[in-house]
Structures are given as C-alpha cells and as structure tokens.
Amino acid sequence: MNRLLRLTSSFRYGSERCELDMEKIAADSSCAAVTTRDGLIEAKAELKTYDGDAYEWVVRYTNIGSQNSCQLTEINGLDLFWPCCTDESLIFESLRGDSCGGDSFLPIREELSGMQPFHLEPTGGRPSNTTAFPYFDLHNANRRLVCAIGWSGQWRLDISRESDGFRIRAGLQDADFYLKPGESARSPRILLMIREGNGDIGDLRRAFRQLELLHYSPRQSFGPDFRVPIACQNFDRYFWNSVPLTGGQQWATEQIQLENIAFAAKCGFDHYWLDACWFKNGFVKGGVGNYIYDAGFPNGLRPLADQIHASGMRFIVWFEPERVQPGTEVDTEHPEWLLIPDDPAKERRLFNLSIPEAAAWLFDKIAQVIEESSIDFYRQDFNIDPLPFWRRADEPGRRGFTENQYVEALYTLWDKLHARFPRMPIDNCSSGGRRIDLETCIRSVPLWRSDTGCSASSPESPSCIWNQNQTLGLSRYLAYQSIASWLPDTNEFRSAMTMGIACDFDAFNPDFNFAQARASIDEIRSLQKDWEGDFYGLTEPSLDPAVWTAYQLHN
Q1: Angle 401-420/356-373 helices, nearest 10 degrees?
Q2: Residue 134 and residue 128: Cα distance in Å, rounded?
Q3: Which helix (DSSP H) or strand (DSSP E) does residue 367 occupy?
Q4: How far apart are the first and last CA of the chain?
Q5: Contact 472, 202 (CB under 8 A)
Q6: Complete domains list, the chain, with CATH
Q7: How do residues 365-409 score in pLDDT, each as one tens digit?
C-alpha cells in the first residue's frame, strides 16, 4: 500500500465521523467492516489491489439493528489527504461531460493553489452529463494519481486546501438519510492508481487504461477477442425524414429494413443496428413505454434477425426502459411504478427500478423481446435527467435514498441480463454519452458516445472536428467507445473511427460508392486490435478547423 498517502473512505453518522482505512484493510484482508457506536450501522468495505499501485473499493452501509438508524451524511467513497508544502500547487485534469456539442469531452485543466475550494458534479443525475466526467487526474512534483468514480447518478468531487496539503473527497452529492432495519445503501466504487515522484501523467493514464481494459470492461465477460461493432445504423438519416425514401415509403417497416440489411451485408458490416422505431408509435409519437411491435413490423423483428444472421452479422436493438411516456403500455397498466415530474402534464415519467416487483416485470418484458427477436446486442438509451424525479420521491429525512436504491437496481437489471444472455453485450447510451462511469463501463460499451453523431457534418455542426476531439479526450481513459460517420470518405470516416463505428450511410442512393465503403470498413477492421494498446494523443484537441489531429496507437 502507498504509505505516503492515506487512502480512506468516510461518512458521517449523526454527529459521529467514521472512516475505513484502506491501508489497514489491505494489510489484513480484502474485506473489513466498522460498526457505529450505537451498533446499528455496519459499514463494510471490499478492497482489491493491483501490483502495489492500484486500488479498487466500494463500501456498503447496512442497518443490522432493529430500529431506524441515525442520519447517514457526507458519504465519501474516497477521502484522501495529499500532503504538500504550503507553496505547492496541485494540477487537476479531467474532461467535460457530453453536451451534444463542440465542448463534449474536451479536456479541462485546473491549477489548484489557493484556499478556494474546488467542486465538480454532473448535471441532472447522469454521471457524465455536461458539467463533469467521472475520471480525473491529480499530479504535482511529488506524485501522480488517476481515479475513476463508479456511480451512475449524482456524484461529486470536492478538493480543498488545508494547512499542510489538499483534501480530496469523492462521494454522493445527495446523502442525508436514515436506514430502516435490514436496509442498505452503498458508496460510489473507487478505482485509482498512484505513483510517487515526478513523472509523465500520460504514462500513468496509459497504465490505468490498461488496468481498466483488463479488469473493468466487457473484456472480462467476453474475452480478449471482444471488439466494438462496425455497424450499419441508418436511423438518423432516414427516420427523421432528413433524407426521404422514394415513393413515400416509411423507414419503420419490415420491407425497408430487409432491403437495408442487404445493403449492410454488401458493405461488409459485422453488426446491423435497429434504433428507436420498432415499437408502437415509435420514438417521436409518444411510444416510449410500449413493447408492442409497430404496425410496420407485423411479424415482429424475427424476420430481420434471421436475415441479419444469414448474412453473417449480429443484431443490435434499441430499448429505453426507464423513460415512459403517457398513454403507453407501461403508463396505462402500471402507473404505480412510475415517478412523475413536478408538473404531471409533462410528457415523461421515470420507471422506478427500485421497486422489486416493477424491476422483475421489466426484466421479463425485455428478455421476452430479446428471445423472440433473437437479439445479439442490447442497446439501452436514457433520454431523461432522473435527479428531480429521485428527489421528489424521497421520503422526509431520506434525501438521496431513492437514488441509491435506483442506481443499484440498474446494475442488478444489467447483471441479470448478462446472466440470462451471457454472450450478449450491452450498449450504454444516454442522449449520447451522458451515463459513462466506472460501473457502466464494467458492464457495457458506449457505442454512441454523443448525440453529435445524429447529424451529418456541417458548418453549424462540424462533427468531423468534434469526433476527432472526442477521440482524443475519451481515449485517455477508455478503449471501448464509438460514434457515427455519415460518409465513407477517408476524412469523415477516419475522424469518427475508433475500435468500432456506427455508419449512417446513404443506403438508398443508387450511386452509393460501395468500393469506398468496403475499403473504409476494411481499414477500421485492420486496426481494431491496436485500440487495445496504448493511446498517445500527439496533438491537443482544438475547435479550429485549420488544426490537424494526430494520435498514435501503440500495440
């Protein structure tokens, strides 16, 4: 264990401040617990260590008594003191969250020197939404640290100057609740890597990226041959009628999809991606919350799956189980399972995953569609900020408890899906890349890292530039990620490609250049293995169209 830094997790119980010392846990075992003075709350930490410089832990708080506990507050998964001289500063580096624009995943760098506290939290209860990203670096002349926060809700990071160093705390933004007998809650999961002495923070990031790739990614479930899909996804080009189909045909029909599947096979894709159009009323007509097939799919999705598999491809299908629109199947049959906004007239509800009966029903409904449609890759979207719903549902004196139970229920849902369908990966989408954190990256891949992929590159939305910058930013920490290309030409395709890609090609253009598409797809396929190696950003991200982007994949 690193003895120059004292790594702890802390919380406040009533007026009592409690902490778990990871150094002591590492010396004795991989698991330890403390009990509050009144004997009601057991805080149990589970710790993993890697090669003496990397540590991962999570803390669970359980009421083991027979009466309600006192208030749990100030839950800090990480509580770290960084000693340094009074005239020394500390460099903080991270990324912006996804905002569906040019700022998405741009690097941020702050020199922390004075007494002004530094605070960071995401927007609206989604962990990588707009204002923050749950991966960060700290470094000065004495040491370097890279950290990932695993909490798919409203986390926070606070750094404050003390007389002889800096206090770094990462935890739950909303935590002021008691636990009833038998109830439990948990801290964010923390994964960090520390090295003493002055050195290149980039070297430590690359080592951290390899650690996450090997132990905290879908590679754990699917093995070293797992690859991000090279997928045909024409939804955004055709569904919104930005490019109308000939003869007034509708995108959301079995016949058009079968024709598009033939196009995808001719291009050489390995996945076919059906987005938000297969269920009754679809995405834009208030259909989110329906699991009934739309009229355009009278035979369900199985005919598409059969053709996809016969063409040597795998089938990705979009779901959005947590957001529910009024009048849909879920809203009509089970309104008691829905969290409503402050204004019930607003056309969105949040499915309350923390109700066990509701979560079991939802799992069965999703599993039924997966099985009968022979789906190979489950895509879950989340186009709603859950924080106001969670806060409104909290009982008096239990701020943050609804969120805690909900977030854990999300992990349970995904873990159950993996247990039921062990060869089916999960795609994590949330209006693009607004739900990226350590816990979701353990279980899933962000195939659509930003909704900047929803439109072709233009002077108003130069997605080629934005894609290059997103790759430079996210690839510091993540090997598995992708975004869309709307054209197969070299510049646009290379601007978007990572280990995988989603392609919004013009499938119904009679002059489509298949040779160019196949050449671009062959190129990305030849490089897929290299994305598992070290990533070197050779240029800084820039929104200036005259500035080149360069990076190196070292494998």
Answers
A1: 30
A2: 7
A3: helix 356-373
A4: 30
A5: no
A6: 6-215 (2.70.98.60), 225-554 (3.20.20.70)
A7: 999 999 999 999 999 999 999 999 999 999 999 999 999 999 999
